[in-house]
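This section describes the prediction task in plain terms. A model, or a person checking by hand, is given the sequence of a single protein chain and must write out its three-dimensional structure as a string of tokens. No templates, partner chains or ligands are provided. The sample shown here is typical of the held-out split.
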Amino acid sequence: MSKIKNAFENGKAFIGFVTAGDPDLETSEQIMLSMAKAGCDLIEIGIPFSDPIAEGPVIQEANLRSLSQGTTTDKVFALTKKVSAQVDIPLVYMTYLNVLFKYGYDKFLQNAKDAGISGVIIPDMPYEEKEELQSVAKNYGIDVVSLIAPTSEDRIKMIAKEAEGFVYTVSSLGVTGTRSEIKTDLESITSAIKEVTDTPVAIGFGINTPEQAAKYSKIADGIIVGSAIVKIIAEHGTASPQKVYNYVKSMKDAIR
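The expected answer:
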């Protein structure tokens, strides 16, 4: 069993996302440490990819900034190892199936384990193909986190029943990005998930204000924020660690 469950043991979980290597690897390390210090319960580390199809413009641009700095998967492993040695919270990778496929599932997951990773989130992996990766990930104690979208409908319970780590509930149709309003009936989706699993449920895609954080943490076990953090990094570059700390603290305080 991975460390992911630890993220949900201190009340509602705040899960933050960053793209590794944005604006550079050294600043990335400081940003992640500042997130943990500010109360982040789990960090999703994006491995940059040239065609991140689930991402909106903010995270797409972060991927391009990182790749232009020469970030590679091996450099992300090295960065993660440094971070995991300094924090107690679980870390998970978020990336695309081609990254793992090209690297080789076994080799990738071995390196991920050695770097201190507890789970992987692969937005473009169909549920029907999950077992191929999951069977290898089990050997390394790494959870393959399932995503459930508003369009999942009758598939919700099927996906949730086999979920591990946590269930990533996508709040809205479309790609990642901040949203002023989320219209999906997340209460019904969360209830349907909880009928079939005790695995914690976290809501992501679009949440960016303390008010939204407080609202959706009442429905779920945690909230996930990516684009709002990445926007701060885009704006402040190497000066972002303190700015990200302040933002994460305000969001964590809102869900306590």
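For orientation: Residues 174-183 have pLDDT under 50 and may be disordered.
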